[in-house]
């Protein structure tokens, strides 16, 4: 990576936004790097769309500041910002055809006719709509409309492309294909993408980094992998995939690790730089796929525990089991890939479940 | 489907007769070869239409009416755009009450409006002319323009406006390049309906017209001369035909504007998160 890649293209400084008495954003700060695919992830009403609208200039923050490419965006209207947006509804102009839609923003720049045509064709090629220029916009499918919206924004060569839930209107198959394609497109053009989504899977697949938001506040900003493996709170952990929470007690605190005693599971050693008072209660997180139901009695797993299966959810390739650990009332979820030699277990069955030291993570926040 | 009873059929027939019989009498006597309005008809003639062609005072009245109707229609449509845009795009205190008051002139008796305007004009020392009629007609046409323009603006997707601004076009450019083209069918419809209302309007024109007589006022004046009645019938026939054509065109554009915006909104995703 060069030095430019580490320079933040967007700096959000302590933004607060109120709508009447409702506080939509509450002291949000973050930095987005040049060339990054950055996602704002959170449930409905968490403030992610509000933040995107503040970046695009359609709304102004109640307090705080936004810098894009080093310049303050205070009082800069949307038409003068180095950003372009792909709207959730795509907002294709119905009275214009595809080429006119894509070239809409260029008319302001006053290009020669053939230069304008070239730029439009280039943009259409980029989104695989090469021969659609003369197509009327009402004759487009949902996926095509989205491509037109993308081409129309990218042709402006913005410093930042903002995407407001761009895949939510597409059906599942098309959505999955577009996730891969959007990522590929972003890497081709090298423009910073800021995506708003409530779909954690979508965010994990496409993003370089993700900001998870709840109730107007940023909970965690991390790479998809870190976010999944080391969620900072129970809320983040359960928003991104499924996480089992198990109570534990600190036995010993060392320089870079702690030794803990997990409810029934036994002793474990975890790496951490934080200090914990021996004897204090903490919560341990473990992902369902980090637990394994033991089918073979001659297994080589070091740590196992007894469990009873409460319910099972069959997904075809996977089965999710809700289990009860030993004779405690601690519940957990185990996911198993349905491969050869793994029959689907029925509720009530007793089984051995294995786990590894490395699969545990400390969950600090509530 | 259930078959309608004979009584209902009879009711419907009488209903339509009541509505349209007087209007059908117009062409019958307009082509009748006699100065007396009575049956049986004595023969077919186009004389009454030629008489219209030769009456100078009528031409002047027609010119006044078209001028007044055109200007009143343009002004009320522009005012209608402003009001409809404000009501659909912005929220302000007392919005419901204000939009209600804007539509009030529809139900106010025209004779009251006419008398009130006359008093105001006289008090202001304005002499009666085509312009005073235009003011009166703008007053009664604007509510209709507001209703038509509101339906054109109502289903207009705000994100189209934002998309235009986002692509570097300012507010004024956006108005002319996105908003106006999309509401143009409504605009034409509003203009034509306001034009028709003004063209046919009698009471307000009668009070405010001064020497610039409009067509309906001219017709009223002609009724004193029984011999002119057939040519008034001929004139009436022409006016009904013209109004009908204008209204059909207006309806065509009104429907197109609705179709335009509905096509769009059905394709749009439900936007649950516009506020937060």
Question: Would you give an account of this structure?
Answer:
The complex is a heterodimer of chains A (about 375) and B (about 280). Chain A has eight helices and 20 strands. Chain A has helices at about 50-55, 100, 115-125, 140-155, 170-190, 200-205, 225-230, 235-240; strands at about 10-20, 20-35, 35-40, 65-70, 70, 85, 160-165, 190-195, 210-215, 215-220, 245-255, 255-260, 265-270, 280-285, 290-295, 305-315, 320-325, 330-335, 350-355, 360-365. In chain A, the strands form four sheets. In chain A, strands 6-7-8-3-9-10 form a six-stranded mixed β-sheet, sandwiched between helices. In chain A, strands 13-12-11-14-20 form a five-stranded antiparallel β-sheet, with no helix packed on it. In chain A, strands 15-19-16-17-18 form a five-stranded antiparallel β-sheet, with no helix packed on it. In chain A, helix 3 packs across helix 4 (about 140-155). The radius of gyration of chain A is 25 Å and the shape is elongated. Chain B is mainly alpha-helical and about 280 residues long. In chain B, helix 3 (about 55-90) runs parallel beside helix 6 (about 130-155), helix 3 crosses helix 8 and helix 3 (about 55-90) packs across helix 10. Chain B starts with 5 loop residues before the first helix and ends in a 9-residue tail after the last helix. The interface of A and B includes residues 49, 56, 58 and 93 of A.
Fold blueprint:
The complex is a heterodimer of chains A (366) and B (276).
Chain A: E1 8-19, E2 22-33, E3 37-41, H1 48-56, E4 63-68, E5 71-72, E6 83-86, H2 98-102, H3 113-126, H4 142-154, E7 160-164, H5 172-189, E8 192-197, H6 200-206, E9 209-214, E10 217-222, H7 224-229, H8 234-239, E11 244-253, E12 257-262, E13 266-271, E14 281-286, E15 292-294, E16 303-314, E17 318-325, E18 331-337, E19 350-355, E20 361-363
Helix pairs in contact in A: 3-4
Chain B: H1 6-30, H2 47-54, H3 56-89, H4 95-103, H5 110-124, H6 130-154, H7 158-166, H8 171-200, H9 203-208, H10 215-222, H11 229-267
């Amino acid at each position: 990576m060069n030095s430019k890649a580490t320079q933040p293209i967007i700096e959000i400084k302590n933004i607060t936004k109120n709508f009447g008495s409702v506080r939509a954003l509450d002291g949000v700060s973050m930095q987005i790097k040049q060339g990054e695919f950055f996602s704002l992830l959170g449930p409905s009403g968490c403030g992610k769309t509000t933040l995107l609208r503040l970046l695009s200039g359609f709304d102004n923050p109640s307090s705080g500041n936004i810098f894009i490419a080093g310049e303050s965006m205070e009082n800069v209207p949307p038409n003068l910002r180095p950003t372009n947006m792909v709207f959730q509804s795509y907002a294709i102009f119905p009275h214009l055809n595809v080429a006119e839609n894509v070239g809409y923003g260029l008319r302001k720049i006053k290009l020669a006719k053939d230069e304008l045509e070239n730029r439009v064709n280039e943009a259409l090629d980029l989104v695989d709509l090469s021969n659609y220029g003369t197509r009327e916009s009402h004759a487009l499918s949902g996926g095509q409309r989205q491509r037109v919206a993308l081409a129309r924004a990218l042709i402006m060569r913005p410093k930042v492309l903002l995407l407001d839930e761009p895949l939510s209107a597409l059906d599942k198959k098309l959505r999955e294909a577009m996730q891969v394609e959007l990522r590929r497109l972003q890497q081709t053009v090298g423009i910073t993408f800021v995506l708003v989504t409530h779909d954690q899977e979508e965010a994990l697949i496409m993003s370089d980094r993700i900001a998870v938001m709840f109730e107007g506040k940023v909970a965690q900003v991390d790479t998809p992998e870190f976010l999944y493996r080391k969620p900072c709170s129970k809320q983040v952990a359960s928003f991104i995939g499924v996480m089992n929470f198990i109570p534990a007690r600190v036995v010993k605190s060392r320089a870079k690790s702690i030794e803990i005693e997990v409810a029934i599971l036994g002793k474990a050693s975890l790496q951490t730089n934080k200090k914990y008072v021996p004897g204090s209660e903490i919560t341990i997180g473990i992902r369902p796929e980090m637990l394994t139901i033991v089918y073979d009695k001659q297994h080589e797993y070091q740590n196992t525990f007894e469990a009873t299966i409460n319910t099972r959810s069959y997904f075809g390739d996977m089965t999710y089991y809700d289990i009860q650990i030993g004779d405690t009332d601690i519940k957990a979820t185990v996911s198993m890939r349905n491969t050869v030699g793994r029959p689907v277990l029925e509720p009530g069955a007793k089984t051995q479940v294995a786990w590894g030291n490395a699969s545990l993570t400390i969950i600090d926040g509530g | 489907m259930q078959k309608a009873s004979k009584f209902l059929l009879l009711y419907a027939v009488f209903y339509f007769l009541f509505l349209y019989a007087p209007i059908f009498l117009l062409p019958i006597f307009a082509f009748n070869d006699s100065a007396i309005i009575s049956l049986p008809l004595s023969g077919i003639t186009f004389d009454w239409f030629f008489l219209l062609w030769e009456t100078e005072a009528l031409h002047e009245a027609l010119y006044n009416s078209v001028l007044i109707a055109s200007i009143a229609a343009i002004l009320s449509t522009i005012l209608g755009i402003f009001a409809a845009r404000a009501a659909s795009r912005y929220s302000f205190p007392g919005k419901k009450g204000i939009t209600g008051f804007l539509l009030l002139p529809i139900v106010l008796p025209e004779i009251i409006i006419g008398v009130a305007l006359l008093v105001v004009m006289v008090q202001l020392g304005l002499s009666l002319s085509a312009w005073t009629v235009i003011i009166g007609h703008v007053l009664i046409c604007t509510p209709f323009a507001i209703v038509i323009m509101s339906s054109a603006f109502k289903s207009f997707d705000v994100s189209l406006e934002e998309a235009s601004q986002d692509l570097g076009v300012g507010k004024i450019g956006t108005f002319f390049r996105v908003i106006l083209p999309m509401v143009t069918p409504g605009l034409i419809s509003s203009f034509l309906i306001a034009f028709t209302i003004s063209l046919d309007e009698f009471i307000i024109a009668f009070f405010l017209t001064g020497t610039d007589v409009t067509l309906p006022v001219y017709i009223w004046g002609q009724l004193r001369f029984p011999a002119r009645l057939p040519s008034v019938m001929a004139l009436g026939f022409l006016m009904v035909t013209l109004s009908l054509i204008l209204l059909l065109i207006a309806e065509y554009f009104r429907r197109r504007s609705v179709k335009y915006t509905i096509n769009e909104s059905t394709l749009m995703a439900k936007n649950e998160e516009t506020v937060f």
